[in-house]
Amino acid sequence: MVIIESAPNESEDNTSTENNVVESSVKSAEETNNDGFETASEGDVDREEEEVEPIPAPPQSNEESQQKALTEASDAKTEGNKLFGSGQYADALLQYELALQVAANMPATIEIRSICHANRAACFSNLGRYEETVKECDRALELNPAYMKALIRRAEAREKLEHFEEAVIDMKKIVELDPSNNQARRSIVRLEPLAAEKREKMKEEMLGKLKEMGNSVLGRFGMSIDNFKAVKDPTTGSYSLSFQK
């Protein structure tokens, strides 16, 4: 009896080979992971984004700060001028005040501050508030003693307030700074008699008050101020008192 040996099953051999390859691949992947390489899922665990701190802007230099303040003050002054030109004096005052606050106490802003004070004086003058006009001119002249417009405005406001003597002083200062200013010269000629008249009036008022006070005291002794006569010395201009019954 002849026994015929069958050939090996090729399909079984192929299946075995494929299983070996898959097993080898899985094993290789596990070994790779165990060697320290992250899988996609591992890479998503406990990863935080790094926060980037903002870089602070460099501090402004003193010169840059002053230039910025000067620009802002100039803008506010320009807006005030527009409002003044349209007759909105109260609103213009606010803009000039804003400019003064922005430019406060800096040497580089002395000029614009003196201008804003003088412009505020002009606003107050147009509003008929002459006391405030004088005060604003005072502040302008503290910053710039030769500021002609401030001197003129203060002199005009002082005249409105009937402070004639002070107005004459301002006008004389104007002539000193500008000898060709004939208007100031004419104002001096016009104001000096008014100043002298007011001085005499004030003197009479003062003498009247002193007389009342004297009579209240002398009346206790049966006398009055009329018992005393004031005699003016023509040489010195001083007065002496003589008693008369």
From TrEMBL:
- Keyword Coiled coil listed: yes
Per its UniProt record, what InterPro entries does this chain match?
A: TPR-like_helical_dom_sf (IPR011990), TPR_domain_protein (IPR052769), TPR_rpt (IPR019734)
Q: Which stretches are tagged as biased composition: Acidic residues?
A: 41-53
Tell me the leader sequence span.
none
What's a Pfam family in this record? TPR_8
* Annotated region described as Disordered, given as residue ranges: 1-79
SMART domains of this UniProt entry?
Answer: TPR (SM00028)
Q: Which residue windows are coiled coil?
A: 147-174
The TPR repeats extend over 148-181
Q: Record's superkingdom?
A: Eukaryota
Keywords annotated in UniProt: Coiled coil, TPR repeat
Q: Does the keyword Transmembrane helix apply?
A: no
UniProt-recorded name of the protein: Tetratricopeptide repeat protein 1
Organism this protein belongs to: Papaver nudicaule (Iceland poppy)
